[in-house]
Design goal:
Length: about 290
């Protein structure tokens, strides 16, 4: 029997980005990929990202995060999910004990989170990684503001020359001249996610700059597919746009699920502000993990 059987979880969302928060502090259990896939397969606990809290390792931090995609793979960062965790650690009747500010450990480093309102939080996502070998890419590109990559006919590509950024996970941002909704990202996304240029796969974004302080964005998320929102992709899009001087260093990024405010500070840290929503709490039915034993 899986230790997760009958375990409490929170179903939340950040701008429609489906999040499940699971508190395993005081437990030694580490979620296995097959358990994550089983949780995602249940309609009541379906997620884009599963945010699992563990006891902190670094002194002065509040919790350690492991982040799982729908396919069971792990992710280094999830901004929308981090906001949901911050809400749960502050406001949930069972989990909530934290104050106005939190510091969370993740594979991408330490994440500082500050409460803005009852449901809005600002996450310091750290500094962007811009070198080809840090993103990583499988071959060197001295300038990652635009790299040689296209899809479609060589003389009339559908998409070409993305900017690439790591925000704890790799992102390729294609700038487009029309509404990103007019592209078949459900078909294009998986082809580009698994392109040989991305040894760890990549999140694929279509970004339309509509003003110096506004970007419209649509994302195919690595390991999860089409998503209504992706916080790290919004951060990557702002960084990629600012590097090309298409925008300033602060912009509102509009995703299908709503707006995030992204600011790339002079200290090189990218900060994301946005809302959270609790949908329901539940418990995993024991039968859910029968095939994951």
């Amino acid at each position: 029997m899986s230790p997760l059987a009958d375990h409490r979880f929170l179903k939340m969302n950040g701008l429609g980005n489906e999040i499940v928060v699971l508190d395993l502090r005081a437990s030694s259990h580490v979620v296995r990929p097959e358990e994550a896939r089983a949780i995602a397969a249940d309609p009541r606990s379906r997620f884009d990202q599963l945010m699992v809290l563990h006891d902190p390792v670094t002194p002065g931090t509040d919790a350690r995060l492991r982040i799982y995609n729908r396919d069971g793979s792990e992710s280094g960062a999830c901004g929308n999910g981090t906001r949901c965790v911050a809400w749960a650690m502050r406001a949930d009747p069972v989990m909530g004990r934290a104050g106005e500010q939190l510091t969370l450990e993740s594979a991408a480093g330490l994440l500082a989170v500050t409460r803005v309102s009852d449901t809005d939080f600002t996450v310091d996502m750290g500094h962007p990684h811009l070198r080809w070998d840090e993103i990583p890419l499988s071959e060197p590109f001295p300038d990652t503001r635009r790299i040689e990559l296209q899809i479609g006919p060589i003389d009339a590509p559908i998409l070409h020359s993305p900017g690439v950024v790591s925000m704890g996970n790799p992102h390729a941002v294609f700038f487009v001249d029309r509404d990103p909704e007019t592209y078949d990202l459900g078909r294009i996304g998986p082809l580009l996610e698994a392109h040989p240029l991305f040894p760890e796969r990549a999140n694929i974004s279509l970004a339309q700059v509509v003003a110096a302080d506004r970007i419209r964005l649509r994302v195919w998320e690595r390991g999860a597919g089409l998503t209504r929102a992706c916080g790290s992709a919004a951060c990557a899009a702002l960084v990629a746009a600012a590097r090309l001087r298409l925008t300033g260093r602060r912009a509102t990024v509009t995703l299908p699920g709503g707006d995030l405010v992204i600011a790339w500070g002079e200290d090189d840290h990218v900060r994301m502000t946005g809302p959270t929503e609790l949908e329901w709490e539940g418990r995993f039915p024991p039968a859910l993990f029968a095939g994951a034993a």
